[in-house]
């Protein structure tokens, strides 16, 4: 195996290089990549130009795929590869993609363990906008002052799709607004996730509507402060896409969001997800 990792920032991000492209598609490489995702949160493969079949092979080697998104899109490719686009010929309900302009974690409002990781390939990169930002909630938690760690320990937040789409609710056509806002489940999750490894991360983002047992204004203010803390430059990374880039991130320990872009740019990403094995636990 001849793949190499180079840290991008102190607390987040690693860039991959390889001697031979075939080195990526082995069980040994998959284990090393998974370990690096757990360690560094975000792993970037510059301009590797994966096919859907190759992306699915890596997904399976790293832990097995899970289909996360309901099949609203008119897919022309493998049904386990979700096309992230504002092209209404493919995505007749772009609200789900518009909602990704805000910090979030995948799979927090469904009745299964959140996906361990998300894998994204760039097929069309916009000239302006469309970058993806990542914020490590592992590093953000570890960086909190001890008194703030104690303040959030044991607290639970209520998560919903309605909360995550509230910033764009007025942009959803009225005829199907209630249906869109009502998808998914309303779930309670501890803010501090103690993983089986013993490490702790935070479960935050726009799905988090309020904190159980706390007055709404105070709870929402706390959730926003935690988002802002996690998104500071020390714990976050912005990736500007080039065609063929491939990025994997630890969905159980990171928020992410897309920088807004115009739908006329044709931005197209192909997404797969690695099944999670841990439910969110205090």
From TrEMBL:
Pfam families: TauD. Its EC number is 1.14.11.-. Keywords: Dioxygenase, Iron, Metal-binding, Oxidoreductase. InterPro entries: TauD-like_sf, TauD/TfdA-like, TfdA_dioxygenase. GO terms for molecular function: dioxygenase activity. It comes from the Bacteria. This is TauD/TfdA family dioxygenase.
């Amino acid at each position: 195996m001849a793949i190499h990792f180079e840290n991008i920032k102190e607390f987040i991000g690693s860039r991959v290089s390889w001697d031979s492209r075939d080195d990526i598609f082995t069980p040994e490489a998959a284990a090393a990549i998974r370990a690096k995702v757990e360690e560094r949160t975000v792993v970037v493969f510059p301009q590797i130009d994966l096919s859907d079949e190759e992306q699915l092979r890596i997904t399976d080697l790293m832990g097995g795929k899970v289909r996360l998104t309901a099949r609203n899109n008119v897919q022309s490719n493998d049904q386990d590869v979700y096309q992230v686009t504002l092209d209404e010929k493919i995505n007749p309900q772009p609200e789900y993609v518009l909602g990704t302009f805000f910090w979030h974690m995948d799979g927090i409002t469904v009745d299964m363990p959140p996906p361990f990781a998300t894998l994204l390939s760039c097929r069309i990169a916009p000239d302006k906008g469309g970058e993806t930002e990542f914020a490590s909630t592992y590093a953000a938690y570890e960086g909190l002052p001890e008194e703030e760690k104690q303040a959030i320990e044991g607290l639970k937040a209520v998560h919903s799709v309605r909360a995550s789409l509230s910033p764009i609710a007025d942009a959803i056509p009225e005829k199907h607004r209630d249906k869109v806002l009502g998808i998914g489940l309303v779930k309670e999750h501890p803010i501090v996730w103690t993983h089986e490894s013993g490490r702790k991360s935070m479960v935050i983002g726009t799905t988090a509507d309020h904190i159980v047992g706390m007055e709404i204004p105070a709870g929402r203010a706390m959730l926003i402060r935690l988002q802002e803390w996690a998104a500071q430059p020390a714990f976050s990374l912005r990736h500007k896409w080039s065609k063929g880039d491939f990025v994997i991130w630890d969905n159980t320990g990171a928020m992410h969001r897309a920088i807004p872009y115009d739908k006329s740019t044709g931005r197209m990403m192909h997404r797969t997800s690695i099944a999670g094995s841990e439910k969110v636990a205090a």
